[in-house]
Amino acid sequence: MKFGGTSVEDAPAFANVAEIIRERRASRPVVVVSAMSRMTDALLASVRQAWDRDVRAAILSLEYQFGRHNEVVSGLLTTEAGPMTVLVENVRREIGELLRSVATRPALCLSLQDAIVSSGERLSAAVLAAVLRQAGVAAREVDARRCILTDENHCCATPLIKETFLKTREQLQQLIGDSVIPVLGGFIGSTVGGETTTLGRGGSDYTAALVGAALSAREVQIWTDVSGVLTASPHVEGNARTIPRLSYAEAAELAYFGAKVLHPKTIQPAVEGGIPIRICNSRSPTSPATLVGAERETAPQTVKAIAHKTGITTLQITSARMLGAYGFLRALFEIFDRHRTAVDVVTTSEVSVSLSLDDAGNLPSIIEELERLGSVRVEQDQAIVCVVGEGLRSTPGIAARIFSTISDINVSLISQGASRINLTFAIDEERVAEAVTRLHEEFFGDLKVKGRMSKVMAPGAQVAG
Ligand code: ADP
Ligand code: ASP
Ligand code: MG
Q1: Beta-sheet strand order (sheet of 277-281)
Q2: I want to staple 457 with a disulfide (CB 3.0 to 4.6 A). Which of 98, 320, 354, 461 is the partner?
């Protein structure tokens, strides 16, 4: 059971989570918890301030966050209030020291940053374990850094799967056998040498899937602030509704292309272990949830959801040297490789390659190198829209419906994924909300869905929501 930051944002939220776990203790859960909401942002901002040599401001900026933790401790704990207050104070002091070290370094030290940022998850795991004990549930905090072993790529470390599975079992099995609920911070790990690492923003979901796979859990539950995966981002589409079932592939595409509710890497360990993922609402535990599992178990609905991602940069590289030549694409992608920059969507013609980047941090040097291959056109402030559904494979005419719905919006970089379950394209960021809303109305508008049911749905299949 993984609880995200918004599920532990204050004392009532912690109490609510403890109750959700208590009610389900008979199924012997392992709990993974994120930092309190906004804590990771605050920690990262403090690192930046310290690096700008303003250590005093960096330390002061975190006072409010420690105050929030102390409020949870004093609001919910009795016998353990003392030791937990001491823990918060110790972490506060430790971070002060680490921030001072950040300020003395000539370059931003990412291992120091990870050590600082990890304190959000370490604190919330310790506090949640204590809140559970207060509620009469046997629970113990386990340092996730003893379970999740990673490479040394700080800030977005890759887990060493064999070692992680081994260590996770070693650390947790005994506790589970003794009916004690282990509570781990998500998102954090450590190198084999013992340095703290983190798995990338939103990585607690990934921790939960890794732990679930290591223990061959019956299910991985992601408890968050919405009722499962919705047909579109609720920030953009007020009528978005819960999708009851998704295949692993559908969930992976949605997560990758912007449905923040699930970290994209969560799917892999679950697929390999054949473990279903259930996404539930901690604010309304009995509301509908989404179950992610193997394809054969999903409803054959044509379009399941529309994801979108903003802040995208698209590049078009044009070169006559591409015509009939081999080695060109390799040379091109090696440039992105060297700059450790992931390319999301790619389309090619005979003389040009268009692609999209989420992370444009190294853009100037990437462009400089690309210009040696051909002319480069850059468009910033773009968005990617991704329409997903297993039924896209077998239903003709979906592309026509998508593009006629937004025919007045300029579309670039159209790509149908190799799995043929998604259709992805780039548009101007400022028109993305409008595009998603219109597509949602086209594919999920109530009357239209009812009208189409008989045509596209197998008997007994469910309609999303
Ligand atoms: P947590 O703190 O539980 O990890 P996140 O903020 O990471 O929660 O993810 C939940 C959020 O994801 C929701 O509040 C919602 O705003 C956003 N979101 C974006 N797209 C979707 C979608 N298709 N379905 C559900 N939530 C989505
Ligand atoms: N606390 C981390 C973050 O905010 C990890 C997570 O919440 O999943 O990115
Ligand atoms: Mg999240």
Answers
A1: 139-142, 181-185, 31-33, 2-3, 220-224, 277-281, 290-293, 245-247
A2: 461
